[in-house]
Amino acid sequence: MAKNAAATKRNNRKIHARKFLATPEGKAWLEQKKTEESELKMVAEVRKFI
User: Fold this and answer.
1) Residues 23, 28, 29, 33: is their CA dihedral positive or negative?
2) Tens digit of each residue's pLDDT (9 = 90 or more) over 23-33
3) What is the value of pTM for the model shown?
4) Is the dihedral of CA 13, 18, 23, 29 positive or negative?
5) Residue 17's closest CA among 35, 32, 30, 3?
6) Which of 27, 30, 48 is nearest to 38 (CA)?
């Protein structure tokens, strides 16, 4: 049982994430994360040139 507890938690997290991303709030959150990630990538690119 103890050996599978970590796997169970991982699976539950994946299931919960899938359910959350299917909701309107989840979609909005995902969009926000994508924009933040793209901004961080731009900052990283600019720092390469400086």
Assistant:
1) positive
2) 999 999 999 99
3) 0.60
4) positive
5) 30
6) 30
